[in-house]
Structures are given as structure tokens and as C-alpha cells.
């Protein structure tokens, strides 16, 4: 297993465009998480899935954001009508539900111009 | 509500000197505490964690941290800094189910030759 994979690593988009990011978790992990990290800050929780069910969403996740995890495997995070304030690193993590098993991917850096 | 505060956004030490990165937590219940390291354009790597076992926790790369309930602190130390330790370090507290992490704003460690 190669860990948590995120694609793309970098994305530059024009304001108003839609973007979609993908996360492939560690195969045996049933929990998947999305975080957002802006410059100079720690990661902030956005949402998490247990299998295919989205169990919690942060208030940070506005109506323009949507996350899915079909079939409980990979997950996608879509941002519609991007704004400059959406520029950040989007981190995915997966977990088996223990403190040992929480593993982060390398992130997708989004730049909205 | 749970939160962590990291004192000092930047710390600079000489190679071979003691590293001390400060973290104070706020939690209404016994906390689970973590230190993560992030290298540029990378995800977060777990250094060590406290889950109510021994108060002195040893991690990877020679780092350790001591949980002090009376001071609500979980400071990270390393006796002798190495150039490869230069990175950003994040303290975090999790909920009881390890489903949501609350991160501090991070401390960038610079190691001078």
C-alpha cells in the first residue's frame, strides 16, 4: 500500500470555475477526512466519511463545496464557482478509527487567480 | 470546545542545540494530543501522540513530549537539533473517536549550521 494519494498535486484555476479533487485512501481504512490549510495556519476540518456515509460537515464547507465517497472507496471534493479565498492546500486523510491509523496525503494546492 | 495554542510561529536554533516547541491545549475532557511535522508541499507526518498512557511520550527522529495536566501543556523537545529537522510542526488535539483533529497554527523550525 502506498498510503493516501491525492490528485492533482497542484491546480491553478480562474475565479468562477469549478474544480474537483480526488483522494484515494489506504485500502483497509473505512474513514476518510478532508481538511483545508491556508497559508500560515494549521489544517481545519471540513468533513468526514465512514464508508460511503458523510457523517459530519464543518460550517467552513459552504454550499459551493460538495464531497462524495461513492462505494466507500475514493472520495472527491468539488468546489463550484471558485473564489480567491478558496486558495489553500486541501488535505485528505484516512483512518482505521485508531490514533495510530490517521494518515494524511500530500495534499492538493489550489490557487484561484 | 477543544483547541490548541502554539506559542511562537518561528523558532530558530543552531545545529546541535536543544529544540523546544510549545503547545498548550484547552479541552473539557481528557485530551488526546499529537505532534505532526510538515515539510514543504507535503502532508503531515505523525511524530508522536499522547493517549492517556505514559506522560512522557517518545516519538520518531529523537523527539519527545511531556503531557503536563497542571499546566495544560504538551511541549515538544529534542536534545540536539539536526539540519533535517527544519520544517513546520503542528500540535493537535482530537475528539474521543479520533474523527476530528484541531490543529494549532504551527511553528516553523529553522536550524542554523
Please outline what is shown here:
The complex is a heterodimer of chains A (113) and B (113). Chain A is built from no helices and eleven strands.
Task: Please describe what this structure looks like.
The complex is a heterodimer of chains A (113) and B (113). Chain A has no helices and eleven strands. Chain A is mainly beta. The model of chain A has no long low-confidence stretch (mean pLDDT 92). Chain B is mainly β. Chain B is built from no helices and twelve strands. Chain B has strands at residues 3-5, 10-14, 19-21, 24-26, 32-38, 44-50, 56-58, 64-68, 73-78, 87-94, 101-103, 107-112. In chain B, the strands form three sheets. In chain B, strands 2, 5, 6, 10, 11 and 12 form a six-stranded mixed beta sheet that branches. Chain B has a four-stranded antiparallel beta sheet with strand order 3-9-8-7, with no helix packed on it. Chain B has a two-stranded antiparallel sheet with strand order 1-4. The interface between A and B is medium-sized, with 26 and 25 residues.
Q: Rough shape of chain B?
A: globular
- What is the averaged pLDDT score of chain B? 91
Strand percentage of chain A, roughly? over 45%
The secondary structure category of chain B is mainly beta
- End-to-end separation of chain B in angstroms reads 41 Å
List keywords for this structure.
heterodimer, A: 113 residues, mainly beta, B: 113 residues, four-stranded antiparallel beta sheet, 12 strands
Amino acid at each position: 500500500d502506498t498510503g493516501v494519494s491525492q490528485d492533482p498535486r497542484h491546480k491553478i484555476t480562474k475565479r468562477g470555475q469549478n474544480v474537483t479533487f480526488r483522494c484515494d485512501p489506504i485500502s483497509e481504512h473505512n474513514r476518510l477526512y478532508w481538511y483545508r490549510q491556508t497559508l500560515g495556519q494549521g489544517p481545519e476540518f471540513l468533513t468526514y466519511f465512514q464508508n460511503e456515509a458523510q457523517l459530519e460537515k464543518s460550517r467552513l464547507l459552504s454550499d459551493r463545496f460538495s464531497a462524495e465517497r461513492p462505494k466507500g472507496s475514493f472520495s472527491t471534493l468539488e468546489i463550484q464557482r471558485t473564489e480567491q479565498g478558496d486558495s489553500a492546500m486541501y488535505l485528505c486523510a484516512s483512518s482505521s478509527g485508531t490514533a495510530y491509523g490517521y494518515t494524511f496525503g500530500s495534499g492538493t494546492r489550489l490557487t484561484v487567480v | 470546545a477543544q483547541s490548541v495554542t502554539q506559542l511562537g510561529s518561528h523558532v530558530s536554533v543552531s545545529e546541535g542545540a536543544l529544540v523546544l516547541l510549545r503547545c498548550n491545549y484547552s479541552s473539557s475532557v481528557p485530551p488526546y494530543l499529537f505532534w505532526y511535522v510538515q515539510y514543504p508541499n507535503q502532508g503531515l507526518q505523525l511524530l508522536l501522540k499522547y493517549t492517556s498512557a505514559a506522560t512522557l511520550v517518545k516519538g520518531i527522529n529523537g523527539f519527545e513530549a511531556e503531557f503536563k495536566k497542571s499546566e495544560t501543556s504538551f511541549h515538544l523537545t529534542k536534545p540536539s537539533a539536526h539540519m533535517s529537522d527544519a520544517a513546520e510542526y503542528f500540535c493537535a488535539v482530537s475528539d474521543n473517536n479520533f474523527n476530528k483533529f484541531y490543529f494549532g497554527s504551527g511553528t516553523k523550525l529553522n536550524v542554523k549550521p
